[in-house]
Design brief:
Length: about 200
Protein backbone atom coordinates (compact mmCIF):
# COMPACT_ATOMS: atom_id res chain seq x y z
CA UNK A 1 0.00 0.00 0.00
CA UNK A 2 1.12 3.57 -0.69
CA UNK A 3 0.12 6.41 1.59
CA UNK A 4 -0.77 9.91 0.30
CA UNK A 5 2.73 10.94 1.45
CA UNK A 6 4.34 8.33 -0.81
CA UNK A 7 5.35 5.89 1.95
CA UNK A 8 4.98 2.23 0.99
CA UNK A 9 3.87 -0.34 3.56
CA UNK A 10 2.99 -4.01 3.43
CA UNK A 11 -0.64 -4.36 4.50
CA UNK A 12 -2.58 -7.55 5.16
CA UNK A 13 -6.30 -8.14 4.85
CA UNK A 14 -8.21 -9.45 7.82
CA UNK A 15 -8.96 -13.13 7.32
CA UNK A 16 -7.19 -15.75 5.24
CA UNK A 17 -8.05 -14.50 1.75
CA UNK A 18 -7.08 -11.10 0.40
CA UNK A 19 -9.79 -9.26 -1.51
CA UNK A 20 -7.63 -6.29 -2.44
CA UNK A 21 -6.61 -5.35 -5.96
CA UNK A 22 -4.02 -3.01 -7.42
CA UNK A 23 -5.64 0.42 -7.52
CA UNK A 24 -7.92 -0.08 -4.51
CA UNK A 25 -8.56 2.81 -2.14
CA UNK A 26 -8.62 1.39 1.37
CA UNK A 27 -9.03 2.27 5.00
CA UNK A 28 -6.19 0.76 7.01
CA UNK A 29 -4.82 0.54 10.51
CA UNK A 30 -1.11 0.92 11.15
CA UNK A 31 0.90 -1.50 13.28
CA UNK A 32 4.62 -1.45 14.10
CA UNK A 33 5.99 -1.50 10.56
CA UNK A 34 3.08 -2.88 8.54
CA UNK A 35 -0.67 -2.39 8.44
CA UNK A 36 -4.07 -4.06 8.29
CA UNK A 37 -6.67 -3.35 5.62
CA UNK A 38 -9.92 -2.61 7.43
CA UNK A 39 -12.15 -1.71 4.48
CA UNK A 40 -11.98 -1.49 0.69
CA UNK A 41 -13.72 1.56 -0.70
CA UNK A 42 -16.29 1.11 -3.53
CA UNK A 43 -14.66 0.55 -6.93
CA UNK A 44 -15.38 2.47 -10.13
CA UNK A 45 -14.50 -0.53 -12.27
CA UNK A 46 -12.56 -3.80 -12.27
CA UNK A 47 -10.46 -5.03 -15.17
CA UNK A 48 -10.47 -8.82 -15.28
CA UNK A 49 -9.80 -11.82 -17.51
CA UNK A 50 -12.23 -14.70 -17.77
CA UNK A 51 -11.90 -18.10 -19.41
CA UNK A 52 -13.66 -21.46 -19.13
CA UNK A 53 -12.04 -22.21 -15.78
CA UNK A 54 -11.75 -19.04 -13.75
CA UNK A 55 -11.92 -15.27 -13.56
CA UNK A 56 -8.79 -13.32 -12.61
CA UNK A 57 -9.00 -9.67 -11.60
CA UNK A 58 -6.01 -7.44 -12.42
CA UNK A 59 -6.70 -3.91 -11.23
CA UNK A 60 -9.42 -1.46 -10.30
CA UNK A 61 -10.31 2.25 -10.43
CA UNK A 62 -8.73 2.60 -13.88
CA UNK A 63 -9.11 5.45 -16.33
CA UNK A 64 -7.59 3.49 -19.21
CA UNK A 65 -5.51 0.48 -20.21
CA UNK A 66 -2.45 0.55 -22.46
CA UNK A 67 -2.24 -2.62 -24.55
CA UNK A 68 1.43 -2.83 -25.52
CA UNK A 69 2.26 -5.18 -28.38
CA UNK A 70 5.31 -5.36 -30.63
CA UNK A 71 6.25 -6.07 -34.22
CA UNK A 72 8.30 -8.96 -32.82
CA UNK A 73 7.57 -11.35 -31.19
CA UNK A 74 4.28 -11.88 -33.01
CA UNK A 75 1.34 -10.98 -30.81
CA UNK A 76 -1.89 -12.90 -30.31
CA UNK A 77 -4.95 -11.43 -32.02
CA UNK A 78 -7.23 -13.32 -29.61
CA UNK A 79 -5.48 -11.83 -26.58
CA UNK A 80 -5.80 -8.37 -28.06
CA UNK A 81 -9.51 -8.91 -28.71
CA UNK A 82 -10.13 -10.22 -25.20
CA UNK A 83 -8.38 -7.23 -23.67
CA UNK A 84 -10.48 -4.82 -25.75
CA UNK A 85 -13.71 -6.62 -24.85
CA UNK A 86 -12.83 -6.61 -21.14
CA UNK A 87 -12.06 -2.89 -21.26
CA UNK A 88 -15.28 -2.03 -23.09
CA UNK A 89 -17.32 -4.11 -20.65
CA UNK A 90 -16.08 -1.98 -17.75
CA UNK A 91 -16.16 1.32 -19.69
CA UNK A 92 -12.37 1.65 -19.50
CA UNK A 93 -10.65 3.44 -22.38
CA UNK A 94 -8.22 1.16 -24.27
CA UNK A 95 -5.08 2.43 -26.01
CA UNK A 96 -3.18 0.13 -28.40
CA UNK A 97 0.55 0.79 -28.80
CA UNK A 98 2.69 -1.03 -31.36
CA UNK A 99 6.33 -1.13 -30.28
CA UNK A 100 9.58 -1.73 -32.23
CA UNK A 101 8.95 0.57 -35.18
CA UNK A 102 12.73 0.36 -35.74
CA UNK A 103 12.17 -3.17 -37.14
CA UNK A 104 11.02 -1.89 -40.51
CA UNK A 105 9.57 -4.95 -42.26
CA UNK A 106 8.01 -6.70 -39.22
CA UNK A 107 6.56 -3.39 -38.09
CA UNK A 108 5.05 -2.72 -41.52
CA UNK A 109 3.36 -6.13 -41.49
CA UNK A 110 1.98 -5.66 -37.99
CA UNK A 111 0.88 -2.09 -38.78
CA UNK A 112 -1.05 -3.34 -41.80
CA UNK A 113 -2.64 -6.13 -39.79
CA UNK A 114 -3.85 -3.52 -37.30
CA UNK A 115 -5.50 -1.45 -40.04
CA UNK A 116 -9.06 -2.34 -38.90
CA UNK A 117 -8.25 -1.14 -35.39
CA UNK A 118 -6.72 2.07 -36.71
CA UNK A 119 -9.92 2.68 -38.65
CA UNK A 120 -12.01 2.26 -35.54
CA UNK A 121 -12.12 4.61 -32.57
CA UNK A 122 -9.21 2.83 -30.85
CA UNK A 123 -6.36 4.09 -32.97
CA UNK A 124 -2.85 2.62 -32.72
CA UNK A 125 0.19 4.46 -31.34
CA UNK A 126 3.55 3.61 -33.00
CA UNK A 127 6.50 3.32 -30.61
CA UNK A 128 10.21 2.60 -30.67
CA UNK A 129 11.10 2.24 -27.01
CA UNK A 130 14.53 0.78 -27.78
CA UNK A 131 15.53 3.91 -29.67
CA UNK A 132 13.96 6.15 -27.00
CA UNK A 133 12.31 8.47 -29.52
CA UNK A 134 11.47 11.78 -27.87
CA UNK A 135 8.50 12.18 -30.23
CA UNK A 136 7.11 8.83 -29.11
CA UNK A 137 7.55 9.74 -25.46
CA UNK A 138 5.83 13.12 -25.79
CA UNK A 139 2.80 11.60 -27.51
CA UNK A 140 2.59 8.77 -25.00
CA UNK A 141 2.92 11.09 -22.02
CA UNK A 142 0.06 13.20 -23.37
CA UNK A 143 -2.15 10.11 -23.35
CA UNK A 144 -1.07 9.04 -19.85
CA UNK A 145 -0.96 12.43 -18.13
CA UNK A 146 -3.43 12.67 -15.24
CA UNK A 147 -4.72 9.14 -15.83
CA UNK A 148 -4.48 5.88 -13.91
CA UNK A 149 -3.32 3.36 -16.51
CA UNK A 150 -2.84 -0.40 -16.51
CA UNK A 151 -0.17 -1.66 -18.92
CA UNK A 152 -0.87 -5.03 -20.55
CA UNK A 153 1.13 -6.99 -23.08
CA UNK A 154 2.88 -10.27 -23.87
CA UNK A 155 6.45 -11.09 -22.91
CA UNK A 156 8.96 -9.23 -25.04
CA UNK A 157 6.62 -6.38 -25.96
CA UNK A 158 8.59 -3.84 -23.91
CA UNK A 159 6.53 -3.40 -20.71
CA UNK A 160 9.55 -3.25 -18.42
CA UNK A 161 11.35 -0.83 -20.74
CA UNK A 162 8.28 1.39 -20.89
CA UNK A 163 7.78 1.45 -17.13
CA UNK A 164 11.45 2.26 -16.52
CA UNK A 165 11.21 5.14 -18.98
CA UNK A 166 8.04 6.57 -17.46
CA UNK A 167 8.73 5.84 -13.79
CA UNK A 168 12.44 5.24 -13.13
CA UNK A 169 12.94 2.88 -10.22
CA UNK A 170 9.43 1.42 -10.39
CA UNK A 171 10.61 -2.10 -11.21
CA UNK A 172 13.25 -1.96 -8.49
CA UNK A 173 10.57 -0.97 -5.97
CA UNK A 174 8.30 -3.75 -7.17
CA UNK A 175 11.12 -6.26 -6.88
CA UNK A 176 11.70 -5.22 -3.27
CA UNK A 177 8.01 -5.59 -2.45
CA UNK A 178 7.79 -8.96 -4.20
CA UNK A 179 10.80 -10.21 -2.25
CA UNK A 180 9.22 -9.08 1.00
CA UNK A 181 6.00 -10.88 0.13
CA UNK A 182 7.89 -13.94 -1.14
CA UNK A 183 5.74 -13.80 -4.27
CA UNK A 184 8.23 -15.36 -6.67
CA UNK A 185 10.75 -14.31 -9.29
CA UNK A 186 8.45 -13.06 -12.04
CA UNK A 187 7.95 -9.54 -10.73
CA UNK A 188 6.48 -8.26 -14.00
CA UNK A 189 3.49 -10.59 -13.58
CA UNK A 190 2.81 -10.00 -9.91
CA UNK A 191 -0.03 -7.88 -8.60
CA UNK A 192 2.23 -5.53 -6.68
CA UNK A 193 1.79 -2.85 -9.29
CA UNK A 194 4.53 -3.46 -11.85
CA UNK A 195 2.27 -2.83 -14.77
CA UNK A 196 0.22 -0.12 -13.12
CA UNK A 197 1.45 3.42 -13.66
CA UNK A 198 -0.23 5.87 -11.25
CA UNK A 199 0.22 9.20 -13.02
CA UNK A 200 -1.63 10.99 -10.25
CA UNK A 201 -1.12 10.61 -6.50
CA UNK A 202 -3.44 8.23 -4.60
CA UNK A 203 -6.18 9.86 -2.62
Amino acid sequence: METPQGQRLICHSRGKKSQGLVGDRVLWQASTDEGTIEKIEPRRNVFYRQDEIRTKSFATNLDQILILIAAEPEFSSSQLSRALIAAEAEHIKPIIALNKSDLVEPFARAWEWLRPYRQMHYGVLPLSLKQSSEVDHVELLKLLHGKTTLVLGPSGAGKSTLINLLAPGALAQTGEISQALNSGKHTTTSTTGTGWIPTRPPR
